Each structure stands twice: as structure tokens, then as C-alpha cells.
Amino acid sequence: MGTIEIFQIVFSVSAAIFVVIFIPVAIQLFRTLRSIQRFIKDLNVEIIPILGRVQTTVEEVNEGLSTVGDILTSLRDVSERVEKTAKTAQQALASPLVKMAGLSVSAVKFLSFLRKLRKKNSRK
Fold this sequence. Notes:
Elements: H1 3-123
């Protein structure tokens, strides 16, 4: 037997061993790929309705936020109106109340003066 024949035998045995080892690995790889394809198919079937529900939920949340925004705007407007009304009432009532307080103090002083005057007249 020559070197070439030995090389051919070693190569043939190596190729046979490689094929025997590679075939189960290739079969398992194809099974895994099929399983992944089924998983992706199932995922696509399930994810579409979920995304539809997520979109509906997001739209409802946006509507709710819009409503809250409208309510806050209305509250701000009411607050501004109450503030303006309070300022107007303060301006309208402050001046007459100050005048009335001054008049009351003057009336008390005048009555006190009249009492003193009456006491002096009654002693005489």
C-alpha cells in the first residue's frame, strides 16, 4: 500500500466520521429552525391583537388627558374670575368701609364730647 492509498483511506474514514457526526447535528438544527419559525408565527398571531388593544388604550388615555387639560383650563379661568371679583369687591368696599370707620370714630368722639359737656352743665 502506497502513501496515496493510505491518504485516501484516512480521508474516506474521516469523511465518513464527519458525515455520521454532522447528520444528527444538521437534523437537530433543522428542527430548531422549524420550532423557531412556529414560535415566530404564533407570536405574530398573538401580537397583532395585543397591539390593537394597546393602541385603543393609548387613545383612551389621550382622550382622558385632553379632558383633564380642559378641566384644568376651566379651573384656571374660574380662579382668575374669582380673583378679579375679589379685587373689584375689595376696591368697591374698602373706601366706604374706611370712611365709615372714620365716621364712627368721629361719632364716638363727638358723643364723648357731648357727655363731658352735659356733665359740666349739670354741675353748675
